[in-house]
Amino acid sequence: MKETDTISWWQEGVIYQIYPRSFMDSNGDGIGDLNGILTKLDYLVDLGVDAIWLSPIYPSPDVDFGYDVSDYLSIDPKFGNLQDFDQLISEAHSRGIHVILDLVLNHTSDRHPWFKEALSSRDNPYHDWYIWKDASPDHRPPNNWQSIFGGSAWEYVPKLGQYYYHMFYKEQPDVNWRNPQVRRAMLDVIRFWLERGVDGFRLDVFNVYFKHADFPDNPPALGLRGFDRQKHMYDINQPELLPLLAEIRQIVDQYPQRYLVGETFLSTAEHAAKYCSTKLLHAAFNFEFLHCPWNPARFLNSIQRWETALQRENGWPNYVLNNHDTPRSATRYVKGEKDERLKVLATLLLTLRGTPFIYYGEEIGMRNISLKRSEILDPVGKRFWPFFKGRDICRSPMQWDGSLYAGFSEKTPWLPVHPNHVWRNVEAQRADPDSLFNFYRALIRLRRELPALRRGLFQPLTFDPVSLLAYLRVLPGQTLLIALNFSRKPRRLMLGRELTKKPWKLVLTSHKQQHPLVGKDYLSLQGYEAVILLQD
Ligand code: GLC
């Protein structure tokens, strides 16, 4: 079989998101750190991932746990220092693992020196680095724009008689990307980290960088909360963004094999696809899987929309079941502690055409933690309790072993460990051939071995949209059939004459017990079984 060389590591590879606070604590302060990650690189090699994306590691007062940056060019002491970072990069690279940093360039922390200067007076040279509007005589906010975290997006500063704009917490003022000095400073941040050897960036909420220059009110929409009761016409997705992305891409392209993936805020597949091209971002997240109910037709619909949307620019899909902002898939799709549904999902994630992202702990089926109101740290959770309990629930310490703090730390961790860590942990799952961990590992290994899994065309076989999802991955000389049973009952997938001309060989099943799988013209699946078959 002929393999082309034009495909990049980020297209073929599996990317693993690390939330550094929660991955591994090396210095016993209850917070994960870079040296902790370093000690777990061999674990990541064993799992088989090709890259790690680190949620922000820059100095931050942690109102939004790292997504409020107070210095873009260094490392928060709780995570280590630049030498630790250099060591992590070089050790990761020596193991063939790429490193992607999270860049939060839409806003800074309100403690960033730029904002402190900006606050000091209207005449300060940094004042225009942020977005300000004079207060009207009746002291109403300048327009109806809302913060996604609740309330008006405008914060009044009495000393200046002005409001500043913040899409997120008021401690995260949005920078003014229309100011050429801001633009230059931010592009220098990108260069700084490229020079230090990072392999790419995840651009936090990149499509919020520009707001409409005239700040018109957003039109109304149907929704529950203030933010959702508006169509976000003027506060996101402005046309000025495209030339900026092109400029960022040009910078990144000066370094070989680097990667830019954008977090498309309020994304749909179509939105995200607009930003992917050889001149813009390599990829943008489509988060539809995070909201799919347990229904194969809905998953298929989402895959097809994404494939179609990306076709125009020949873009490359990516798939995400989890991240640091969303309840964990293991809790979304499973009541209790069984992992059979999670194996179905893992098979889906790792056999689609596109880059799979795994969120730390997903590979061992970590569940959300439950927190009392007094334990909530995420401000958005405090504000909207009990309707929305915030995002701490999916950020609990990685469960390495069954010891008191799950092998994550020797001291009380910053968030509680899940009580199920006593038996749901890496150590136990590594030892169990039927564990979810070993299933993820086997799937990732298969992706490496079978080019059709990485590069093959995606061809759906829509036989039973309620309980079955089946598709082919096709390369000349190698065809794979992936069949996923979303039902707890056994199911048959009729194959038809075309598909049974050549024999199928089973390469992976999520079920321990082998059974007569392929009949004359059908495939039989046990409840919640996921299989991969090969024809060559
Ligand atoms: C992104 C991050 C989220 C953060 C927000 C503001 O959505 O994923 O964690 O709160 O941006 O930076």
Your description of this structure?
- With 536 residues, the protein is an alpha/beta fold.
- The chain folds into three domains: 9-108 and 180-444, Glycosidases (TIM Barrel, Alpha-Beta Barrel); 113-165, Oligo-1,6-glucosidase, domain 2; 456-535, Immunoglobulin-like (Sandwich), CATH 2.60.40.
- The protein is 26% helix and 15% strand.
- It is built from 16 helices and 18 strands.
- The strands form four sheets. An eight-stranded parallel sheet has the order 9-8-7-3-2-1-11-10.
- Helix 11 (340-351) runs parallel beside helix 14.
- The model has no long low-confidence stretch (mean pLDDT 96).
Write the layout of secondary structure elements.
Layout: H1 9-12, E1 15-18, H2 34-39, H3 41-47, E2 51-54, H4 82-94, E3 98-103, H5 113-120, E4 132-134, E5 154-157, E6 162-165, H6 180-195, E7 200-203, H7 241-253, E8 259-262, H8 269-274, E9 283-284, H9 296-311, E10 318-320, H10 329-333, H11 340-351, E11 355-359, H12 379-384, H13 426-431, H14 436-449, H15 451-455, E12 457-461, E13 468-475, E14 478-485, E15 491-494, H16 496-499, E16 505-509, E17 522-525, E18 530-535
Parallel strand pairs: 1-2, 1-11, 2-3, 3-7, 7-8, 8-9, 10-11
Antiparallel strand pairs: 4-6, 5-6, 12-13, 13-14, 14-18, 15-17, 16-18
Bound molecules: alpha-D-glucopyranose.
Residues 64, 67, 104, 168, 204-205, 263, 324-325 line the site of alpha-D-glucopyranose (GLC).
